[in-house]
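Record type: ASSEMBLY
Status: queued
Input:
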Amino acid sequence: GNSVTQMEGPVTLSEEAFLTINCTYTATGYPSLFWYVQYPGEGLQLLLKATKADDKGSNKGFEATYRKETTSFHLEKGSVQVSDSAVYFCAPPRQLTFGSGTQLTVLP
Amino acid sequence: GAGVSQTPSNKVTEKGKYVELRCDPISGHTALYWYRQSLGQGPEFLIYFQGTGAADDSGLPNDRFFAVRPEGSVSTLKIQRTERGDSAVYLCASSLGQLDEQFFGPGTRLTVL
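Status: finished
Output:
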C-alpha cells in the first residue's frame, strides 16, 4: 500500500546546527505531502506542505521539496533553535498511520 | 476562524464505566478522523469519516469502541466498559477533503482508574 518512511529519532543538535529529517514515499506519488509538528504538551499542527511535484513548502525557517525523482520530501532547516524541539511527522493525505515521528531536541 | 474543538479536555472515569468524547470539526470539513495517542508515541488511527459514514474503522481496537457522525459534522467517540489500557489522549482531526491537510484538536485526556 501507499506509505511514507521517515527517519527514526531521536535527533539531538546544538543550536544553530543544520537539520535534515529524511522522508521518502512509496507508491506512484501523492497529490500533496505534509510535515506536521507536535511541540511538547501540545497537539499536532501542520508545519508545511507541498501540493505538487517539485513544489517547495516552507514555514518558520523550515523547508521541504516534493521530489518525484527521488521520491522524497526531506525536512530541512539551516539553523535550528531550542524552540524547534518537538516531534516531527511526515505524512501524505489521508494519513492514517503516523508512526512515532522524529523527536528533535535542540540544545542551547 | 474556530479550529477543531474537543470536549471534555480531561475525563477521569472508573474501570467499567461508559464514556463519550465529542469532536467539533472545522465548519465545512467533510473528513473527520479519530486517533489516540499514548505518551511518547505517534497518533494511532481509530476511525475515519467521510461525511456521515465511516469510511474506515479498521483502527477501532474492539467492539467496546464506537463512533458516530450523524449529521456529517460533530462526532462522538463512545467507549463502553472502559479499561485501564484505554487511558490515553484521544485526538480528533478534520480536513476539508480527504486529500487536504488535517487540522487537529487539542485532544481529550482520558484516564481510567
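Annotation: The longest strand of chain A covers residues 44-50.
Annotation: Chain A has a mean pLDDT of 89.
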